[in-house]
Automatic annotation (TrEMBL):
It comes from Lutzomyia longipalpis. Belongs to the G-alpha family. G(i/o/t/z) subfamily. PROSITE patterns: G_ALPHA. The keyword GTP-binding applies. GO terms for biological process: adenylate cyclase-modulating G protein-coupled receptor signaling pathway. GO terms for molecular function: G protein-coupled receptor binding; G-protein beta/gamma-subunit complex binding; GTP binding; GTPase activity; metal ion binding. This is G-protein alpha subunit. Mg(2+) binds at T34.
């Protein structure tokens, strides 16, 4: 059973109360499958952002090309805990990877992997696999390992992404 379902089952009394109001964690633990392209506009640090959620399901991937015109950054969210699955359609969580790596060796899918089964070593290997796919040396890859329900860490990641976007825009204007 998916971990988020266990947490909901543990809270059935609270969830079933007449005056139930979802908490931030309740909302973060829900999963809505993205179909099609969902466009969201929001402000962060007095900057306006336009975010496209394109969905990772195989049937949605051919629609991505329409989102790549005039973009400043591309953010790929990958569930590291799904390294031994064919499709990546589950929630993105660091904690599941930490748990899974102890039971299901990375060598199942990456026979060339020679490191240990500890989180740090395995995560560094997976990061290196993504970085090796970068064919353009002028395009930098910034990797952040996080858990989707850890709002503090997500805030840190979004701050870092925002800083990179601002620096790139300043560099494009000759101001950086």
């Amino acid at each position: 059973m998916a971990p988020f379902l266990c947490s909901f089952l543990d809270d059935l009394d609270r969830l079933g109360a007449k005056d139930y109001q979802p908490t931030e964690q309740d909302i973060l633990r829900t999963r809505v499958k993205t179909t099609g392209i969902v466009e969201v506009h929001f402000s962060f640090k007095n900057l306006n952002f336009k975010l496209f959620d394109v969905g990772g399901q195989r049937s949605e991937r051919k629609k991505w090309i329409h989102c790549f015109e005039d973009v400043t950054a591309i953010i790929f969210c990958v569930a590291m805990s799904e390294y031994d699955q064919v499709l990546h359609e589950d929630e993105t969580t660091k904690d599941l990877f930490e748990e899974k790596i102890r039971k299901s060796p990375l060598t199942i899918c990456f026979p060339e992997y020679t490191g240990g089964q500890e989180y740090g070593e395995a995560a560094a290997y997976i990061q290196a696999q993504f970085e090796a796919k970068n064919k353009s040396t002028s395009k930098e890859i910034y990797c952040h390992m996080t858990c989707a329900t850890d709002t503090n860490n997500i805030q840190f990641v979004f701050d870092a992404v925002t800083d990179v976007i601002i620096a790139n825009n300043l560099r494009g204007c000759g101001l950086y």
